[in-house]
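Lab channel / #folding
Pinned by the channel admin:
"Please post every new chain as: sequence first, then the structure tokens as a reply. Keep commentary short and put observations after the output so the thread stays searchable."

First post following the new format, from NK:
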Amino acid sequence: MSAVRSVQTSHPATCLFAARALRDFGDGFVAILLPVYLLVLGFSPLQVGIIATASLFGSALLTIAVGFLGVRYDLRWLLLAAASLMTATGVAMSLMDDYLLLLVIAFAGTINPSAGSVSVFVPLEHAALTREVNDAQRTKMFARYSLVGALAGAAGALAAALPDLTPWGLAN
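Reply from TO:
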């Protein structure tokens, strides 16, 4: 109960930093393993590249759409919707092996084919962070936010080697 209470009473920026760290760790991990997974499914390097391009293009369009909608809706609601979309995307990607379906999921979802955060979350979190500090502290807050993301993404990319270290790894 105290863990739940401490999360509820913690500073909103702390929650945003934690969310960024977890998401970028996953992005770093997936940026390495998703192409390997798609190649194991039998897709050509060109097909893998097209899926990565579709995911970046879809993320760009979603980010633009959220830019227009962000002023009309609560940021918390938009962040929860984006997190739900990210979860649904991950589940759908793991269940499908048809190329066209994977292409649609990559475009419509939030799969990030790079270890850097290039998703709809960044502008939403930036908007939320600006509400948490005064003007003089804003640059310091964004620097910390970016550092947390970069370190978590690097750790996730490094952790992508873990499946090969297990007896049931990708190489087996």
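NK: Residues 13-159 form one domain.
TO: also worth noting, The chain has a mean pLDDT of 85.
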